[in-house]
Write a structure and sequence with these properties.
Strand content: 15-25%
Helix content: 40-55%
Radius of gyration: 16 Å
Order of helices and strands: EHEHHEHEHEHEHHEEH
Structural class: alpha/beta
Number of helices: 9
Shape: globular
Distance between the termini: 9 Å
Strand order of the largest sheet: 2-1-3-4
Largest sheet: 4 strands, parallel
Length: 213
């Protein structure tokens, strides 16, 4: 069984390899990093990279992938659509997290990149509908300065800013870290509010989808 992962940053590769080793030993992961997809999607909107994502997914399927996991929240919906068109399971990493979040009640979404906010809000609304809820009570927060730290390679500074933003939330039942790259911040928070991140549940869902083919 082979699971392909489509990333928009190389920082995700060791994270998912470690999760595979801990939770899914024996699963073969194939990593494909395309940083330019996020750059263009942030500038022009996710649909601007739709054709490229579909072509990449088709290539991964042709090379033997049983399923594809898109680890970028900004282009997650585009990747899912490509999977439908091609007939291969393509999962967005943040969907299981979103499903858990809407069941918790009031959601505060933290993001380091503005282009991630609307796709995450739309996903939460979709999951609320799937759960039969009247809607998702969502507040979004852009963590100022965090993305600049991330781009500069200052991972500690990036995670510390995200953790501080989470600790500043006081009116939520759950906090969602919208981007997979933010996951490490959950271990740095002191808040009593549950903090959800996407890599572990997203990988579990993708492994299950690949195994089910």
């Amino acid at each position: 069984m082979t699971l392909a992962l489509l990333h928009t940053s190389p920082v995700h590769v060791p994270v998912f390899d470690a999760l595979r080793d801990a939770d899914h030993p024996g699963t073969v992961l194939r990593h494909l990093v395309r940083e330019e997809l996020l750059t263009r999607a942030a500038e022009l909107g996710p649909e601007a990279v739709g054709d490229d994502v579909e072509s990449l997914v088709a290539g991964l399927a042709a090379e033997g992938a049983d399923a594809v996991l898109c680890t970028c929240s900004t282009i997650g919906a585009v990747a899912e659509s490509a999977g439908v068109a091609l007939g291969i399971p393509v999962l967005r990493v943040d969907r299981p997290m979103a499903a858990a979040a809407v069941r918790a009640g009031r959601v505060t979404v933290l993001a380091a990149l503005a282009s991630t906010l609307e796709p995450t809000r739309a996903l939460l609304a979709e999951e609320a509908g799937a759960a039969g809820l009247p809607g998702a009570d969502v507040r979004t927060v852009l963590v100022e300065g965090a993305w600049e730290r991330f781009v500069a390679g200052d991972q500690d500074g990036f995670l510390d800013l995200v953790a501080a933003a989470a600790d500043a939330v006081g009116d939520a039942d759950v906090i969602v870290l919208a981007q997979g790259s933010m996951a490490g911040a959950a271990e740095r928070t002191t808040t009593a509010i549950p903090v959800l991140s996407s890599p572990r549940p997203g990988l579990a869902a993708a492994v299950a989808a690949a195994a089910g083919r």
